[in-house]
Amino acid sequence: MNRVLNFSAGPSAIDLSVLKRAKDDFLDYNGLGFNIMEVSHRGKVYDQIHNEAIGKIRKLYNLDDDYAVLFVQGGGHMQFAQVPMNLYNGGVAEYVNTGVWATKAIKEAKILGINHKIIASSEDTKFDHIPEINFSSTADYCYICSNNTIYGTQYKTYPDTKGSPLVIDASSDLLSREIDFKANDIGLLWGGAQKNAGPAGVTLVIVRKDLLDRVKDNVPTILRYKTQADANSLANTPPTFGIYMLGLVLDWIIQNGELNGISEKNQQKAELIYGFLDSCDFYTTHAQTNSRSLMNVVFKCPNENLDKEFVAQAEKNNMIGLKGHRNLGGLRASIYNAVSLESVKILVDFMSEFAKKNG
After folding, report:
1. Catalytic residue among 101, 226, 300, 307
2. What are the φ and ψ backbone dihedral angles of 285, each rounded to 5 degrees?
């Protein structure tokens, strides 16, 4: 088996043990003679997979019955619109702009014509930090993107919303650390599965139930969170195989120390690669030190030609996904949950050798 080291930003690496479990089940799930993709989402076999996945998420995030756990489709771009369609309540929605994904969410708020306000932004410094934030206590909701894949920034702690519901786009740091939903006034947290929770196709939404009734009558039925909450995410045919894969990833997280254990490993990986970058004058990083992401490490060589050569040489050494996003250029190592510490050590060794040869 010729497995590369995968540092892609998303869809991204899935642990090999998870893939092997899926491979074993692919033609013959639990000896039943079918793949889970081939059977009804209304049947007992899928029903168990579906509800166990919900239960594992509740366990990992320590959720009580005040929160509904939903599986929806449409990815982040759907959520940019679905959040205001469901949570805007006639007042003002407050947004923090920390990069492309927050910008896209703000764009959808504009299209929908809701009263919204950008209360903080780091655009003037190319989104290299998390800005100071002062949410108001009367906002319909307060919106942040907790980790920016492109610019390599991440909230270390969530901002104080003074009791207003906090909405978190957690697509790129989903299931990577423990979260106290009540203490942080989280009204809704959502994330696509394709970075830390399995293949693309499933979007996890965790929403406080008291917010479900805000939705207006003119919102299409299938776009209402309440529709899926009332139907246990079975109002339409869900992405059954993706939810099955999510369940396997959740098992892997639980086996690896739950979110606390995963968070410790993520911290170790980040400390290793940032420690090297800070000690080497060949590379420069984009994010300010106190805003650095544990998921996406963004850096560059002294010039664009060396960036291209770095990517080419890395691929020859069986490392993929290291090219930076087109908006920023440079390089990016995405070190999500499934990227091992050993893989990061190999990458750092390669970075060191590349700097020696080209410095």
Report:
1. 101
2. -100, 160
- Residue (of 63, 54, 70, 109) closest to 224 by Cα position: 70
CA dihedral over 334, 335, 341, 343, signed as positive or negative: negative
First to last CA, the chain: 35
Average pLDDT of adjacent 10-residue blocks, the chain of 359 residues: 93 97 96 95 96 98 98 97 98 98 98 98 98 98 98 98 98 98 98 98 98 97 98 97 98 98 98 98 98 98 98 98 97 98 98 97
User: Given this model, what pLDDT does residue 2 score?
Assistant: 87
> Of these residues, 169, 173, 185, 307, which one is catalytic?
169
Question: Within 13 Å, how many C-alpha atoms sit on residue 248's CB side?
Answer: 22
In the annotation, is 169 catalytic?
yes
323 annotated active-site:
no
Active-site residue, from 128, 190, 195, 226: 195
Alpha helix ranges (H) inside 39-97: 44-61, 75-87
210 included as an active-site residue:
no
pLDDT at 325: 97
